[in-house]
Amino acid sequence: MSLTDKEYYNLTISISKALSNVEMPIKVKHVRAAIIGTFHSNGGHAFWAIAIRQPIQGNRIVAWKFCHLLHKILREGHPLCCAHSMRHRTMLLEAGKMWGHLTDGYGICIKHYTKLLVTKLEFHDRNPRIPGSLSLRQGDLEKIGEGDINIYFQLAVEIFDYLDDIVALQATIFNSITTFCVNSMTSPGQCRLAPLIPCIQDSNPLYDMLVRIMFKLHANLPSDLLTGHRQRFNTLFHQLKAFYGQSRNLQYFVNLITVPKLPEAPPNFEQQSDLGNYQTPVVVMPDSDPIDNEPEHPAIDNLIDTTEATPPIPELPHANNHHQSAAAAAPVVPVAQVMELERLIQERDDLIRHLQMETQRLSNHLKAVSIEQRDVQCRMEDQIATLNAQLTQSQGELTNLRFQKEELELRAQTAPNLEQRAQAEEERAKASEEKFQKLKTMYTQIRDEHVNLLRQHGEISKQLASSTKVAAEASKAKEELQCQLQELEQKQALVANALQQSSNDARQEQEAISEQLQVMTQKCESLQSRYDEMEASRQAEIAELRISLERLEGELQTFQQDRDTLSQEKGTLEERLSEIQGEKDELGLKYEECLGKIAELELKTDTYAKEEVSLQQSVSENSLKAKELSDQIEQLRTENDALKRNYSELEAAKASQEAEFQRTHQEELLRFDSLQSEMDEKLTALAMEKSTIADEKQQTWDQLVMLQSESSQKVADFESLEKDLKAVLEQKDHELEELGAKYRELEEKYQSLDANMERVLSEKETVEIDLQDLLHQQEQMEQKLQDALKQVATLETALIDCRISGETALRTLLEACIKSSEKLTLRAIGENEMPGAGGTPTYFLMIAEELQEVLTKLKMVHENYLKDNSTNVESLARKVIIGAHLLASAHVQGMTVCNRSANIESGERIAEELKKLGQSITTLFQSLQKTSESNTVSDRITELKVKLEEVTTMIVDLGKQTDGTENLGDMVESELSSMDKAIEEAASRIQEMLSKSRASDSGIKLEVNEKILDACTSLMQAIRILVQKSRLLQSEIVGLGKGTASAKEFYKRNHQWTEGLISAAKSVAQGANFLVTAANKTVAGGAKHQLDLVVAAQEIAACTAQLVVASRVKAPRSSSNLTALGTASKNVTQATGIVVATAKDCSQRLEDSQDLDLGTLTVHQAKTKEMEIQVKVLELEQALQVERMRLASFRKKNYQQPVEE
């Protein structure tokens, strides 16, 4: 189903009214219209196409109402609305972030509401089985969980997050109402409170699901693992309870919703019985308000002019004549009418197909053109955005250049090499000017391209109008075809009436023709549905094109505004360029001043260098003078030494000339002292002059080093600045290259668009040629239809013959099946008359022998069936039915024998073979279904016979092993009789012993014998009662368990239990005989045989306990005989204790009467007696140890091999 233009316009009006900027709640009729629109458009595409054009980011009231409307549509709209809304999550989050900065109450509410809507979309995306309304039927939650506890765990976490967002939204809404003092009964208050209704509807089923999931988690996981879940649930429980209570108190919600009530305390999940006390909270929504009286959709004019004449549609050749002839000849020749109808339907189908192809082609063309136009528009927008960014960046660069200029002015006073940097700045200014000229030319080109795009957009709009006209013509043709289809259906009804009045032979033809007509009608309906789908897609595409056109118009306006702003920015840039030029001139003047200062600095540097050179020369001269003076001093010293040496040598020779010599010597000394003083004064002056020169040299050197460091630092700063400016210029050049590449790409797109337009025109010409070809093919198909109808007539006659022969064969096959079923039923009735025969190896052997013969005959019959070309069906069906029954009986009887077998291992092996036999049976019947595989069926029958023979052999061997259990019934009866006889004989013998003792004994011995025999008599009486109660319980067990079988058969089936009874009866009989023997020894031998009596009493008590246990194994718990048997067993135990106590007491009394009189013995006799007693004690201890060893070995041997009598 698709939306027509009128429906789409009405939906637009409803959504626009619902999202008005008036602060009041949304009207119910507008919400209902939007929800119905989602079902008409099969999803939420139409809703979103209209909603995104509303001022959601421009008006807070519209944004709030949009969230409310979207929430209602996600809950009650088409099931695909949630899936179609997933692509708009980013838009919702961005709108929420934008309005979240508003502080008037709506902003924070919108932020929380958009977050809740995104959470709801993601929840349904992860859980597609949960509908938007969150309502689940009984058993849906188990299907969602799939029996996996991990899914329930994750689902609980997601529901917690969902409920947290709902609680946060309602808290924000109530907080805004309280903060701004808004009354709930006013329009602003109702506008804020209205979205709480879908929040209550969402939270109620979420709470119910969460409670049930928590009970499932606590039933399958440890309680400690779910501590966090319980804490979150308790917090949410109290928050929801407060939310519901606060909403219930508001008058606004009284007539709109019945708020659910939560219990006083949260459920106890650790106690599973609390789930039975849990009651699901219910939300009740009363009937919605009546629709307002104002008109929902005003009358509008058609958006598309459809008054032009539609192109002529080829007429159906001789349609009227054929209709009249068909109507006239219907009662006589119905086949002619059918042929005419089929021909008309074929013509109609061809015409529909042609129109559908044409519509599809035009819609594809429109879609491609709109997509290309949208891409071009997006690219233009991107280019405009990049140009704006470049302009902004250029402005920033100009500001940076101004700052750099100011820094250069500050640095120019002290920094060298400013001439080169000024030239670099001048070059950069020229580059910036050139870049601005390039941007200006690029802007002019883009403006021209945009004008061309607008022209192309106008041409595309014209083409869209023409395609819309073609679509209208196609819709008219569709209506005409529907009229023709109705006429054909009426004529079809007339033909059907005529065919019903014909004979039985013609009735078969009528059914075949009606089936063909139904097929054709279905084809027509399918074509109609396909056309509707195409029409829906066309409408959606037209709506998208309209939206894109509106968006393009808006973008054109924005582009024009951007163009105006760009022109203004161009003027400002030119002004800034002139300012930069002036600043450049000022920089030139300052540059000249800097050059003068640099020249002065260079002159000073030259003077400093000259002074340094002169100082260095003076220092070198002074150093030479000092060397000369030092040489003179050394020379004088050497001369002084020589004179002293000559004086010493000539001292003796100059005695005569001493006076003269002394005079001359004094003169030389005076001259030497004067020269020495002059040298010292000169050396002091030279040292002082040298120190002053060194100080001046150090000062000049320090000044030179400082100037050199400052110069190097300035050079480094200017080099870094130059590198940064070069990088910026390279980046701008790269961006200009990218703009050029994008411009070339746009030119290629325009060329491809022109090529697509030419291709569309050529395709249109080919479509017209194809239409002529289709008309020609239509004539050829009419001729082929005539030939096909003739073939149908011949096939109908052959079908009648085949039907007669088939009915005969079916009747024969039915009689064979009935006879075989009768035979099998009589056989089953005969088997039921002998219930004891079933489940035995003999009965299985009888069935197996008969089955071998039937399988052999089945093989022969199947081969004959294939040789006779499937004509002899009767005998094959009879053998298959009998064989299937015997195979089933053999399998059932074999499994019964296995279950009743005493040998468990053999029974399990036979059961495995029977399973393999069942697989072979299945394979055989699968092969029988395929008639062409004759060899396969023969092989399967042979294989089945082999396996049946193996199973038969194993069951016969099993029967031979279990023949020993045939006489178990007689054995148990004989053993029980022997036990009763032994007990009676023991009681009579005890009475005889008592009478003999009374006749022959007296005194203490008589008293002891009477007590012992009385105790034994009481024990035998208790044992007799126990045996009687055991016999009654066994009779009850046999009566309940044998069913229709005999008691012997019951004992045979339960052979292990029967063997236990036999063993217990033998033990009781032996114990009775042993008790009589021990009592006789005790009466005859005295105290030394008292222990024999104790052992005999304990042994017979143990035997009776074995009998009780064997009887109790199969007894029902509520049996009265079982209770009586327990009482009798307790009496036997008490009687046994009495016998043991009496024997010990009597033994003590006899020993006391025979005590040794020690007073009459001498010391030697007493000592001898003591030694004899010690020896006897040692002998008895050794004998006791030996007897214990014998008893242990005897018991061990008894356990390994039971004693046989």
CA gyration radius, whole angstroms: 62 Å
- The amount of helix comes to over 70%
Overall geometry comes to flat
Structural class: mainly alpha
Compressed to H and E, one letter per element, the order equals HHHHHHHHHHHHHHHHHHHHHHHHHHHHH
Residue ranges: pLDDT <50 for 5 or more in a row?
Answer: 288-333
Strand residues, percent: under 5%
pLDDT averaged over residues: 73
Task: Determine the number of helices (DSSP H or I, runs of at least 4 residues).
Answer: 29
Distance between the termini: 96 Å
How many domains?
A: 6
Number of strands: 0
The largest sheet is: none
Pfam families: ANTH, I_LWEQ
Coiled coil: 391-583, 619-667, 718-798
Domain ENTH: 3-131
GO cellular component, one term: clathrin-coated vesicle
Could you walk me through the main structural features you see in this protein, from its secondary elements to its overall organization?
This protein has 1205 residues and is mostly helical. It folds into six domains: 95 residues; 155 residues; 254 residues; 129 residues, A middle domain of Talin 1 (Up-down Bundle); 191 residues, I/LWEQ domain; 43 residues. The chain is built from 29 helices and no strands. α1 packs antiparallel against α2 and α27 packs antiparallel against α28. The chain starts with a helix and ends in a 5-residue tail after the last helix. About 4% of the residues have low confidence.
